[in-house]
Amino acid sequence: MTEELEKFLPGEEDDTPFMDPAAKVMGDVEIGGNALLFPGCVIEADDSEVDIAEESIIMNRASLRSTKDNPVSIGKNTVISHGARLEGCIIGEDTLIGMDSVVMDGAEIGDKAIIGTDTIVPENMQIPDRKVAVGKPAEIIEDVSKEDLEKIDQIRTTLHEKRTELRMIWERGERFDVFEAPKRPDDILEDKEIEGKDMERQEVPSLEELKDKFKELKKNNQTF
Description:
Mean pLDDT: 82
Shape: globular
Strand content: 25-35%
Order of helices and strands: HEEEEEEEEEEEEEEEEEEHHH
Distance between the termini: 28 Å
Largest sheet: 10 strands, parallel
């Protein structure tokens, strides 16, 4: 960190959450201290409130939407990964929601739980504390280990370090190139033409296949 940036370092008492200008927040949203909202995430609270507790992190392209019957509640120190979609659900503290996973209306996820990548948690399903769930629909496959919690803590620490850097950069009126605002749809189409007829529908893997894949990912440190 350069001396030029250090003068913009927030004070120890400053726990203001950081919301990237490319993040979108609408409606009755409460964001706790030291929370971090990355570019491209969308928070919608038109029908009821969305509560994001302190120290929680909402990653790029994640979507949180309350429903008429159920608000969204994100517990302290929780990480919502890239592309995850949450609707009218409760997420506990110190929990990790994996990339591109879906947690549906009325579902409840406990504390220190892990929802694996590309998992679908159905409506009103409950995942207890310290459990790992994967699959479409989600099924509990094992307990969260001490090693898992340490890995999540490392992820969270790294992301919060980014939060401090981002706040300093914005105080200076600049940004890291890596956090550019998402491209406009017409820009994306110019880069790569997408033809729906060439897209093949993927088969949903069995639970046994998912369990084997999850174990392999853990060995290669790619679970999250």
